[in-house]
Amino acid sequence: QAQLVESGGGLVQPGGSLTLACTTSGRAFRSYAMGWFRQAVGKERELVAAITAGGITNYADSVKGRFTISRDNAKSTVYLQMNSLKPEDTAVYLCHTTGNHWGQGTQVTVSS
To answer: Bridge partners of 77?
Structure first.
């Protein structure tokens, strides 16, 4: 059973940056794809970015060029570097891995 714990959310002004981290335990991290999803109030959950076990990345069109997903297998951690943040990026960000394992989520609020 995988456990996922997110950190790094918070309040940031438009145009600012944040880095989220998701640390996993309970399974061989390096063998599984990882993803970041987000869910804003009143909206459906959506995929933001994903990274395969081999390091291939995929992004939602809305974040391409602004967000970067990466992984550190030695630390069993996946990161989401978010730059040029916009108010529409405000959401709870959730970490996910294969087998329908989810973290508890971390709030990101972009507001002046």
So the answer is: 23, 72
Measured from the Cβ of residue 66, the count of other Cβ atoms closer than 10 Å reads 15
- CA distances 13 to 16, 17, 55, 91, Å, are 5, 8, 30, 14
Do 87 and 30 meet the contact criterion of CB atoms below 8 Å apart?
A: no
Tell me the pLDDT of the chain (112 aa) as tens digits.
889 999 999 999 999 999 999 999 888 888 899 999 999 999 999 999 999 999 999 999 999 999 999 999 999 999 999 999 999 999 999 999 998 999 999 999 999 9
**Rounded distance between C-alpha atoms, residue 48 and residue 59, angstroms:** 6
